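explain this.
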Amino acid sequence: MTKPRVSVLINTFNHERYIEHAIVSAIEQDFPAADTEIIAVDDGSTDSTPAIIHKLASHSEFASRIRFIRKENGGQASAFNVGIPETHAELVAFLDGDDWWAKEKLSAVVEAFSKNPDVAAVGHGFFDTLSNGEPSELVVPRTVCHVGLKGLEETRTATVAKCFLATSKLTVRRRILQRLGRIPEQLRFCADEPIMDAALALGGAILLDRPLAYYRYHGGNMFGFGSTDPVRNRKRYDVQVFLIKFLREMLPEFGVTPDRIELMVQRYQLDTDRFEALYGGGGRRQAFRAESRYFRQEYKNASAGYLLFKAAVAALTLILPPARFYQVRDWYGKRNLRRIRQTIGDAEPMFPEMYKRVRLLDRN
């Protein structure tokens, strides 16, 4: 077999309902089969996921294209650390076992790399879908663009743009993975974060304004929307605390200055502050500090009316228990009451609105 141009690395854990769809979407790309290899790493699933992968990998039509690796459960980073050394191509495309790709994904990504020989990664738009695969929202960059970490404003844009570089949207050059080395296995999820941040620092990324992946929301998502499960939120908190520390140590090695690093981690810091208000004993004072920080880092040039509105919100953090305050906040957000508040006053976002969302249907 000649050396493939693209290695597809699929990581999976207990995805029996979804894994066949993911693998078939990689097999059915309009990119030449001879130029691809598919490595599926099962992270110790306890359901029928391994049997499904084995059946596909043993099929006479696919046997030469799929390599199946089964390991003890250790999390996403450990799956990457096992799978990445097994890849052979210059480009490595990542896919979560519960997501899937559009047929033209690899062709579009490889073309972008060919046109931009110095770029480290390519990302793209995507569809959010329900657990049954029905698309609920289209999310795409407003235009094809390059993002990186060369200055504060570019870093702000990159921070917003990272949703287009998360696992199933991420393809990187091998040199980035070699420079990064082993990914800390404390990252049982969010193991794509060091990869995308290293790529942003070491050449940047091209973002395509096309939806080439489907991100599936279901009960097993660790970073799904609106989780109120304290156990799941504790796991998220632990990973975010680790990421804040790790990125502050890793990024200086790639030439990223402290001010840009703080921009990169501040949203994780906000999430940890909110967790500590809810579950860590910080209480109302911590909620007040968290929401004050959120206002300072997310908005500028606020009108008098908007400042009055934010003062009322700050007062609520001191009046209501944190759990009740965040229930009210979620209720406000889900009903899009911002349009009413805008009649009182508004503020400019600190981060650019560089993507567009098109709601296709309401999530269940």
In short: Residues 42 and 282 are 39 Å apart (CA to CA).
